[in-house]
Amino acid sequence: MKKLLFSLIIIMSLIACTTDENSDSYKPNSIGTQGRIDVIMPEMLWKGRFGNIVQEQIAPLLSYYPNEEYLFDVAHSSPREFGMGSKKQKNILEFEITLNPKLKPGISYSSDIWARDQSMVTIMGKSQQDLYDIFTSHSQEIQDHFIELEIERMKINLIRNKNFLAETDLLKKHKLSITVPNDMQLSINNDEVAILERRRLVSEKQQKPGDLQEFIVIYHYPYTDKKQFNKEALIAKRDSIVGKYFKGKSANSYMQTADTSLAPSFEKERLFKNTYAYEIRGLYSMVNGFRGGPFINISLVDEDRGRIVTIEAHLYGPKFAKRTYMMGLETMLNTLSFE
Fold this sequence. Notes:
The protein is 32% helix and 32% strand.
C-alpha cells in the first residue's frame, strides 16, 4: 500500500511539473537585439526573388538617414535550422507551406510560444504563390506590428527612471505631458518652445567613445486653418523654430530641413492616439555648417486649446548607427498627451 501511495505521489508530482513548465512562469526570456527580425523560410525561397521582396518590404532602406541603415536587421533560418535551435528569438516571421487539407492559407499572430516577450507572425499557404500573395497584401501591417512591439518594449525601460521635475515644468508651462528619462534635461522652456536634450559620450562596436546628442523639440501655435496641415507649411514652421534655436559654430550657421535633392523626406497622415496627425521624416542640415542627421516631426491639433502642437525628435551622432537611438526618441514622442 505504501509503495502504491508513493508511486501515485511521484506521478502527480511529475504531472504538476510538466504543467508548470508549459506555463509562462517557466518560459525563458526571449533573445535578440533591438530591431532584429528572424525570418523562417525554406532556403530555396530565401535565396530567390521572394526572399529579396521580404527583406525590401519588411526592412526597407532608411533613405533619409545620412548613412546606409535599414528599418530592421533581418536574419534568416531554414525551418530545419529553426526547429533544431532554441526558438527563443524575440521577433519571428515564419513562412510555411502545408498540404494539410484542414489548414487554410492565411496569416496569424501569436505571442510567447517558446519564450516570454516573443512575437511570431506566421504566413501559411498551400503553395509559394499563396505565401507571396498573403505576404504582399499584409507587409505594411506586419512592419507596423513589429515597430509597435519595439516601441512598447522601449517604453517599459523609459518609464522606470523618469525626470519628474522636467515633466512637471512641461505640464505647467505647456499643458501637455511627455515621459522624460532622468538623464535628459529641459534646456529651454519658454512660451514658444520646449527643448529636451541629452548629450553623452558613448561607445559602440568597439569604437572609441564619441559624441551623441539627442533632442526632443516641442512647440505650439494657433490653429486657424486646415491649410496649415500640409508638408510645405509644416516644414516652413519647423525651419523657423529650429533655425532660431539650433545654431552652428560659424557665423550665420543654423539648422534647416535638408533639401530633397540631398535626401528624400517622407510624410503621411496618421492617427496619434485617435487624433489626426501629420508626420514628416527627413534629414536636417546646417546652413554654413556640416552638421546633420535624421528627424521625425509629428503635428496634431489640441482642439481644447485651439492650437497645433508639434513634437520632434532628432539627433547628432556622426560616429554611430542612428536607428536604435531614433527609435528610443520616437518612443518618447509616443508618450505625448494633452492635459
